[in-house]
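pasting for ref
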Amino acid sequence: MPNVLVVANRTAECEELQQALTERAAKGDSPKFTLVVPSAHGLAKAANPDAEAPEAQSHVDNAVAKFREAGLDVEGRLGDPDPVAAVQDAHNMGSFDEVIVSTLPTHLSKWLRVDLPHKAAHATGLPVTHVVGSEAD
């Protein structure tokens, strides 16, 4: 059973990401998805008390519930506020076979400005699929 790391934030609950996970699951090898949502927590939260950890946790909880309802095997957790560090941390703490990065469209995405899909591939050595999604309501 392949393990797929999924990194998303504002797009964690979007239809485009659910469709991508459903298509990945349809390949027939019963993947297990781990959704990581970068969020200010720990020292980053202490340095910036106004950071949006509750919003990020809400994205995790809502996305996991939605994906499970769709029949997907998924768990979720918060990650480092830096999305590249979140990918590296998750990769170092788990065993993954591939990565899915979900971002907003190019003109809105901070993650694409830092080239997260390519940095995730470089940091993990794994194949990366990039999903362009819409922001969750």
